[in-house]
Inverse folding.
């Protein structure tokens, strides 16, 4: 360990109580994606107090501040701002939002790293730039919220990272560092830190507007075309094609009926079904998506309705990325008492994250942390060990950033040079624009 690494650890240790108090406050004030105004202002104030120049309001609520020499390589240290709707969680706000996915801990981690890296002596040793980047909206939003933020902020991507990429606000970033509460290994690991990124499914959002014809439900159903029946038949067909989904593709299709009709004595004339179509590769997503469309088109034809199908941008799949040596070395600096493991190889996490969209254009170094119990996205999610959930990740993120950027940023340069991104940033934008054209009024 060199003297700068010692200093990084000392700085975070010296501010432990303040970071823990912040964690407690953020945990009890979860906010919906693209509405994280309170959290964003806490992030922004904290960074300003460190003497950093802060950009705010990026894709509604994103916040960024750069530390280092202002040159490349530029690495983004990412913290996700949003909570999720989980009204029965004990720490839920009056609006029903809770940090049942632990994103608040990422913010503490990111700010703890900013605290250490912005120390003048530490910052002077960064041969590149660490962009402290609080990003909005990791959790996929319901269609009604997506529509609201499109109208209020011109947001076209549900995922905050996707929207930042779409707006070119990450064009100068070469590499991203992300973190999360344990995911794939959750419940199966007692490690404090798990290094690397398991493969995750990607998905598209799909809304089926089933259009039928209203009629008196008792006096004249023969004059109607029952959109609810068509939607239910479509879902039955979807059930019957599940046997064609291949194991290797890790397919998940999960619909729910957002609108089932207008009144009990009227044949339903419009039914709305939302769903996510997930799979491990972009090709599999597109293939399954077409099959799902056929289910609902065929059902509509059988009942005399019409299926209008709208696909929305979701998240791209994450590739598996085993931990780089630099990540393992940084974790080793935390001492022999910290239990560190690598992701299990060959496991696909069937959930999705917009980190997949980062992977589409740049290398991502990821680790997950323990210190909590209960299933993610459930009322049981709780912190059991604040040191492991809040302080250790901050130390690892800071040490990793320093190791990537010291000595001419050799490690960051090696990783970016050897990463074959599926898209250029411009190519990514083009693909998204062509695949999910913006509605007329947003163009
Ligand atoms: Zn999450």
């Amino acid at each position: 360990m060199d003297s700068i690494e010692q200093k990084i650890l000392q700085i975070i240790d010296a501010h432990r109580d303040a970071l823990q108090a912040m964690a407690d406050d953020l945990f009890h004030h979860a906010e919906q994606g693209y509405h994280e105004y309170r959290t964003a202002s806490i992030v922004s104030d904290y960074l300003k107090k460190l003497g950093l120049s802060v950009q705010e309001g990026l894709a509604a609520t994103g916040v960024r501040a750069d530390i280092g020499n202002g040159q490349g390589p530029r690495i983004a240290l990412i913290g996700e701002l949003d909570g999720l709707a989980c009204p029965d969680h004990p720490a839920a706000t009056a609006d029903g939002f809770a940090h049942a996915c632990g994103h608040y801990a990422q913010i503490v981690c990111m700010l703890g790293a900013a605290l250490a890296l912005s120390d003048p002596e530490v910052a002077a040793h960064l041969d590149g730039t660490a962009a402290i980047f609080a990003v909005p909206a990791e959790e996929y939003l319901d269609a009604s919220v997506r529509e609201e933020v499109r109208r209020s902020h011109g947001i076209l991507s549900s995922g905050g990272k996707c929207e930042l990429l779409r707006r070119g606000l990450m064009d100068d970033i070469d590499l991203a560092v992300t973190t999360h509460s344990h995911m794939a290994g959750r419940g199966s690991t007692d490690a404090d830190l798990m290094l690397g990124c398991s493969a995750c499914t990607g998905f598209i959002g799909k809304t089926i507007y089933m259009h039928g014809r209203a009629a008196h439900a008792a006096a004249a159903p023969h004059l109607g075309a029952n959109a609810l029946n068509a939607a239910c038949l479509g879902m039955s067909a979807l059930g019957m094609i599940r046997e064609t989904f291949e194991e290797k593709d890790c397919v998940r299709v999960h619909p729910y009926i957002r609108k089932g009709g207008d009144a009990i004595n009227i044949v339903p004339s419009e039914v709305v079904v939302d769903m996510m179509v997930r799979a491990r590769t972009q090709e599999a997503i597109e293939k399954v998506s077409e099959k799902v469309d056929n289910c609902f088109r065929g059902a509509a034809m059988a009942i005399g309705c019409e299926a209008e199908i709208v696909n929305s941008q979701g998240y791209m799949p994450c590739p598996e990325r085993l931990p780089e040596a630099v990540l393992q070395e940084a974790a080793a600096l935390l001492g022999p008492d910290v239990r560190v493991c690598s992701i299990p190889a060959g496991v696909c996490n069937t959930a999705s994250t917009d980190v997949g969209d980062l992977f589409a254009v740049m290398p991502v170094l990821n680790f997950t942390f323990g210190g909590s119990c209960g299933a993610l996205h459930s009322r049981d999610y709780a912190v059991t060990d604040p040191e492991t959930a809040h302080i250790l990740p901050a130390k690892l993120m800071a040490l990793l950033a320093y190791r990537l950027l010291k000595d001419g940023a050799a490690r960051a340069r090696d990783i970016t040079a050897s990463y074959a991104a599926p898209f250029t940033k411009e190519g990514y934008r083009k693909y998204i624009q062509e695949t999910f054209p913006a509605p007329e009024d947003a163009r």
User: Anything to note?
Assistant: The chain has a mean pLDDT of 96. The first helix runs from residue 3 to 14. Residues 101, 103, 138, 180 surround zinc ion (CB under 6 Å). The CA atoms of residues 80 and 135 lie 5 Å apart.
